[in-house]
Amino acid sequence: MNGLYSCIIAISMYSRLPMPKVEWRKERMAYVMCCFPIVGLLEGAALALWFWLGMKLFRFSELFTALAGAAVPLLVTGGIHMDGFLDTMDALHSYGDRERKLNILKDPHIGAFAVIGMAVYMLIYTGILYEYTSMLASAGVRGRSEGMLYFLPVVAFTMERAFSGLSVVAFPLAKQEGLAAGFAAAAKKRMERLALLAWVAFCVLASALFGIGGLAAGLAVLSVQLLVFAWYYRMSWRQFGGVTGDLAGFFLQVCEAASFGILVLFSKLVVIGGLAG
């Protein structure tokens, strides 16, 4: 039963999806990070559904589908991870010591570098999604596996949350208070680490359902997320002395853009087209 409560807490905390209210007890929070990838699965499914509705049912332009698609993750999550991205951008560009940076993360006010960072991020992210919707538009014409291209966002969003949860239960914490510290303190860490690694393996195996092209795409997403994960560990330790909830959100946003970026690059190199056609 505590596992079910952990899932409800994870989905209600990290998304805007309606869930029943439950009391946050320590024993009920023990498996929250195990359930965190479910939020990514639902978010990826929502984006894939929007791509299908926009491209197939309503026949919107590729540009409009991409522009609206860029808003889907923010609508599903309520912007909780983007909030962490904004706070981290302000903290990193303060060029202060660790204590000052951690104080900036806690500051509810927004700074100039947060605004600049979000503007740059959304321009790049929307541009990448436009390339992705262009891939979807040409998939049927060129005989590519459309199903695989609709499914890959689910893989990317689910896997990145497995890595984010892994950082909370495995990386050093920058402070002993806050959301990340609370979940880490309540976590059954060995069990959660194994479960989160199993989520990663599940995502790769699920992508293999679409054949060699799907497996290659899944491994490409895995590779780029591992690179971002390693960079995130180094950056969080050097700049902040460990991870926080805001830094975990920052990681997710960077990982999301990088994952779609590698898939688009795959397409440009005709790897997906050649293997999935």
From TrEMBL:
Query: What sections of the protein cross the membrane?
Result: 29-52, 64-89, 110-130, 150-173, 194-227, 247-271
In its UniProt entry, what is this protein called? Adenosylcobinamide-GDP ribazoletransferase
Protein's gene: cobS
In the record, the note on similarity to other proteins reads: Belongs to the CobS family.
This protein's record includes keyword Cytoplasm: no
Q: Which reaction does it catalyse?
A: alpha-ribazole 5'-phosphate + adenosylcob(III)inamide-GDP = adenosylcob(III)alamin 5'-phosphate + GMP + H(+); alpha-ribazole + adenosylcob(III)inamide-GDP = adenosylcob(III)alamin + GMP + H(+)
Q: Which Pfam families match?
A: CobS
* Function comment: Joins adenosylcobinamide-GDP and alpha-ribazole to generate adenosylcobalamin (Ado-cobalamin). Also synthesizes adenosylcobalamin 5'-phosphate from adenosylcobinamide-GDP and alpha-ribazole 5'-phosphate.
Q: In which pathway does it act?
A: Cofactor biosynthesis; adenosylcobalamin biosynthesis; adenosylcobalamin from cob(II)yrinate a,c-diamide: step 7/7
